[in-house]
Design a protein that fits this description.
This is Mitogen-activated protein kinase kinase kinase 7. The protein is built from seven helices and four strands; from the N terminus they run H-E-E-E-E-H-H-H-H-H-H. The longest helix has 17 residues, at 77-93. The strands form two sheets. The chain has a two-stranded antiparallel ribbon. A two-stranded antiparallel sheet has the order 2-3. The chain has one domain (2-161): Transferase(Phosphotransferase) domain 1 (Transferase(Phosphotransferase), domain 1), CATH 1.10.510.10. By secondary structure, it is mainly alpha-helical.
Length: 190
């Protein structure tokens, strides 16, 4: 969880710059671990641009790409939020977000366009599930800001171990999503 928080803080820094910077290719292969895995660095700013730049071209990697990007809509910071939600899912699931029949760029984009996302992670703490699913919502305006993500993650971090410890889902003292964020899960439990 520490890596996810460090990534969120890095992206929040980019979004808070003047002018705001959008990474546009945020994905796990563009995250570097240094200092024995304790520190995460974001790399590959080759497709980054400031928010004022009107971009609609299809930049990024399909598995982490927000639906509005490949549908030709305008890039906003919310594209990075979507990508971060996929990264959080990856860190918890410890696998690629799309595999098998849905692993080609076209099939991933088609699946995401149709509303499919990576599968629910069995045993994932509910506040984390709510957070990553809110981040990858099809509607950009429903996604939280990266500042909101950082705030939620800061509140949840005391419930998790160090940077190298897997998530334990048996902690019933963890706050419910309503206690730690304005982003609530309107969907029924699966």
């Amino acid at each position: 969880m520490n890596w996810a928080l460090q990534c969120a803080k890095g992206v929040a820094y980019l979004h808070g710059m003047t002018p705001s910077l959008i990474h546009r290719d945020l994905k796990s292969p563009n995250l570097l671990l240094v200092h024995g895995g304790r520190v995460l660095k974001i790399c590959d700013f080759g497709t980054a641009c400031d928010k004022k730049t009107y971009m609609t071209n299809n930049k990024g990697s399909a598995a982490w790409m927000a639906p509005e990007v490949f549908e030709g809509s305008k890039y906003t910071e919310k594209c990075d939020i979507y990508s971060w939600g996929i990264i959080l899912w990856e860190l918890i699931a410890r696998e690629r977000p799309f595999k098998g029949d849905r692993s080609t760029a076209y099939s991933i984009m088609w699946s995401v366009h149709k509303g499919l996302r990576p599968p629910v992670i069995k045993g994932c703490p509910r506040p984390i599930h709510v957070l990553y699913t809110r981040c990858w919502d099809k509607e950009p305006k429903i996604r939280p800001s990266m500042e909101e993500v950082v705030s939620v993650m800061d509140k949840l971090m005391p419930y998790f171990g160090g940077f190298d410890e897997p998530i334990k889902s048996d902690d019933e003292s963890m706050p419910e999503p309503d206690d730690c964020t304005d982003c609530t899960d309107d969907e029924e439990e699966e």
